[in-house]
Each structure stands twice: as structure tokens, then as C-alpha cells.
Amino acid sequence: MFAAVDLGSNSFRLHIGSHDGQTMRVLKSAREPIRLGAGLDNKGCLTPEAMDRAVSCLQRFKELLASYDDIEVRCVATNTVRIAKNAAEFLPMAEAALGHPIEVISGEEEGRLIYLGVSHTLAIPTERRLVIDIGGGSTEIILGRGHEIAKVESFGMGTVKHSSVYFPDGVITAAGFDSAVLSVRSILEDAKSGFQPEFWRNAYGSSGTVRAISDALLKNGFGDAEVSLPKLLALRDYCIQKGRIDALNLAGIKPERVAMVIGGLSILIGLFQELNIQVMQPIEAGLRMGVMWDLQLRSSKRDRRDQAVHDFLDLFRADMARAKSAAELAQLIFTQLKPTNEQLQRYVYWSGLMHEVGLAVSHTGFHKHSSYLVEHADIVGFTTREQKLMSRLVLSQKGNLRKLGDALGDPDFTKAVLALRLAVTFMHTKIVLDVSDIRIKMKRGIELELTQSWVDLHPTVAYWLQKEIEVWREVGVDFVVRANPS
What we know:
Layout lengths: L1 E6 L4 E8 L4 E9 L15 H19 L5 E6 L1 H5 L3 H12 L3 E3 L2 H16 L5 E7 L4 E7 L2 E8 L3 H8 L7 H15 L13 E4 L2 H12 L7 E2 H14 L15 H18 L3 E4 L4 H13 L4 H12 L4 H17 L7 H11 L11 H11 L7 H12 L15 H18 L9 E5 L3 E6 H6 L3 H14 L4 E6 L2
Parallel strand pairs: 1-4, 4-5, 6-9, 9-11, 13-14
Antiparallel strand pairs: 1-2, 2-3, 6-7, 7-8, 10-11, 12-13
Helix pairs in contact: 1-3, 4-10, 5-9, 6-9, 7-9, 8-9, 12-13, 12-16, 13-15, 13-16, 14-15
């Protein structure tokens, strides 16, 4: 069982589903119109009222999730939480209410997950397609073929802002529509060349916004559910004629969603005009479906993050043999340390692979450059929190440990640091280490046992281990090394 929680700028949504061996089936859905994006004040902070609405909703989602056993949950927050200046205040409250971590994902990661949901729903392996998702706070445009993404861009234009800025007080005018569409075309101007029809065969609209507009076209006499520019312009003219959002009576659209549909309509017209789209098909798949598919792929050992790390290494021309040697050795040592959080093992491995990417910047202080790149690069599939974790591990590979501060209060993180430091030390000194050569454990202190025959083969190891003993002593951790007969 898998669950996806989406903290969108307009609505919070929950999908619970299961994989039947071929497809993902949604068993339960929930949606609440929290309007988080409209809850930003003039300083860019979430208001107490908006945070209260969000927390109450997440408490109800927690109750729903608690009724299912053996369920994997992933919660993602999108544009409004990305830009909220007091997100650090809001997230702990939200996580406590939901009972699960909340990942603030980048626009690019949002686009990847949207495309993942669409591509698995369509299941057309060779189709070249354009996927557009118009959300409350941002719009994602993705170009791909089958399951593979060729290009993804996220733009800070969404239905909430477009509705409030260009149709203030619910007034709909031709000038307002023209300004709204022009703003979209201006934002897309630099990126539009990469998304023209020559690169794709079919266009899909994955968001609730596109599906709502499609329903409005079908149920209000503008034609069938297929979205085209003439139909969108006809709907625009109808809205202008009515003059006010509260005067619109659009069959198939709930009254509380009409404002968002008007904002989305202006964005969609701009997209059609700037990207030369003729026809778009709405599709019942997107971010939440993508999140569930991502969980399923991870559970079946087809984690997209593995490929992303290798792409990252290629980008910075890292030495793959050295990277793999450090990663495998760090994983071996970490396993011996018997962490309680086994999920950390993957991050130890990935950190080992990426520990030298900073050499592309400078050999001096390369671990600092590596740490910066790991934290700030767009590494597909990873959240900001995951990249910060790996960044700290990479930073810890050499030098003093005082820079890690309170992080060493987490025993499992400390074991991860120890594993990576020893792995990098042995790899850099070209010491070949077999699992039978080492025994290590960490409780109140560190105890490392090595076979005497191995120590005799590597006389310089004593020097490097003495340095390590001194580094750990500086942070109050005893480090004892013993050489035992073979």
C-alpha cells in the first residue's frame, strides 16, 4: 500500500493506492481546499489562520492514514511552502499533525513526479509528449518520451496569484485577461524554444486545473472535452461577458473553484499561444500518482536516484572507480556498526560515490566544494532534506568534526560519519580492505579491531588512524584500535 500527500498551493490532497502487479489503483482519495497560497501575507509569510487550516487538515489526513496497515507514506509540499519565509515555523507543526516527514520539493522534482504519474498511466513506451501541470502556485512543463524525461522546467505562475492579481475583487475584464496572458507569454519567452511541437507528438494537461477547464468546455456548450485554443478563447469571451467571477455559473465547476479556473484559463491560453499547442488532452494523473509510483519503484529496487547520482558523477567527471571503492567500503563499515536506521545506508553509499565531485572545482578543500555541490545541485529524485544530509556527510569526510555541531548527537548519523571517514582514508591511501580484516563497533566510544597480518602489510595505517583518534577525541569520543592475531 502506498499513500501520497500533496500540500498544494490551493488544495491539500491525499491518495491511497496499491500496485496490482501492472498498474497503480487508487483506493481512497481526500481533498480539502486549504488555499495556502492565498494565506501568504504581504511579507511572504503564511498567516496563523492559514497554518491553522493546514494543520487541522493534516490531522484529519493522519486519521485516514491510521486506518491502513503496512502503508508507505510520502508527503510533498510545493510552491507556497517553497517560497514562504516562515516555512521553518510551519513545517514542524505540519509534520506533527500528519505524523510523517514533509518534503519541500523543488519545481523540477515536482515536474519529474508529475511526469512519472502521467507516463505510467499512459503506458505508451515510445510516445514523444508534452505534459503541462498548472498548479495553484507554479506551472510545470515537461518534455519526454515514454518513461524518460528530456526536459523539465518550473515557472512561478499559478492560479492563485493570477486570479488575485489580474482579476481583483472578482472583476473579469478583457484588459485583465490580456494582461494575464501577456505575463505568461513573457515568462515563457526564454524557454519556449525547447518545448515547440517539433519535439513532441501529443500534449497532455495533468492538473486539476486543466481537467476543470475541460469539464467547463464540455458541460457548458463549448464542444467536447478536448482542449483547443478556439474553445479556450470562446470560454474567455463568455467570462468577460459575465463580468464577475461570482456571476459565472459554470456547470461542472464548484463555485469555490471558479476563481482558480479563471486564473488557470488565462495561463492556459498563454501556454497554447507561446508553445504553439493545437490540442491538449486532459489526463487523470499527476503529482500524487507520480509519488505513489516513485514509492513503488523504490520498493522494487528501481530507484531513480541511483541513476541521478551516476549522472551527477558524469557531469563533474568524477573517477568512478575511486567513487565506487569509497562507497562500497563505507557501506561495509556502516553495516558492521549496526545502525538502528537502516535507511541511512543508502545515503552513506551515495555520499561515498559523490565525495570527490568537488575536485572539479579545486583540489584545495575539495570536500567543502563537494559538500556545496551535493547540497545545491539539481540531483533528480532527491529532496532538499536528503541533499542536505548527504552534503553534511560529504563535508565530514575529512578535517575536524566540530563543524558538525549538534548533529553528532544522533548515534546513527555519527556512525555514518565514521564509516565514510574510514572508507575515504583507506581508499585515499590505496589500502585494500577485506571484510575479514576489520571489526568495528560504536557504543559509548569507537572500538576498531584489525588483523595483525593486515597491519603488517600496511605500516602507514598506524599514522592515519592516530590522526583519526585525535579528531574524535576533540569531540569527546574515545577511539581505541587493536591489532589481533590472524
